[in-house]
What does this fold into?
Amino acid sequence: MSDAERKELKEEDQLLKNLLKIYQEYRQDLSMTNEEWEQHIDTILERIWEIKQLLKSSM
It folds into this structure.
């Protein structure tokens, strides 16, 4: 994996973490059911995990 690809993954990882934080801060304002909320969070967490695995394997 190139340095540019690693940098891009790190940036995506940070963006997803920021998105997760925003969801957590404003959850009460969202008109989602608990199930929809959990699906969104699960998707974000899965992608964060995938990025971490890609970064680990590239080192």
Summary: The CA atoms of residues 16 and 44 lie 6 Å apart. The helical segments are 3-26, 34-57. The chain has one domain: 3-57.
